[in-house]
């Protein structure tokens, strides 16, 4: 399980907003503008869970298998659909223009399929688990 410390910043009727600091490498990445890695804090909305209030320190955890599945849905599905569209366009019409147009259609179809699959699994299977952080007071020994 991959875990990340976070903080509850707001509780709403249907969701709670949590914030976490970006990884230390985020500021030096060449793609930081694309993923907002230069921001000092990232936040996301999660379903409300009982027992948490604004200001609570929590641990967000996600199974490695779930993260791998999400990456495959987001990246591999559209890429495969793009390649399949290009091959079908070339095979059916025999021109580069048809291959390019079919590749774009395949990409669009792959993105739509990935979006639908992500919505289907987003309810329970791809939600991170949330645990309270229990910190020992400074100076105490265990």
From TrEMBL:
Domain of life: Bacteria
A Pfam family this chain is assigned to: RseC_MucC
Keywords: Membrane, Transmembrane, Transmembrane helix
Residues that span the membrane, as ranges: 67-91, 97-118
InterPro entries: RseC, SigmaE_reg_RseC_MucC
Stated name of the protein: SoxR reducing system RseC family protein
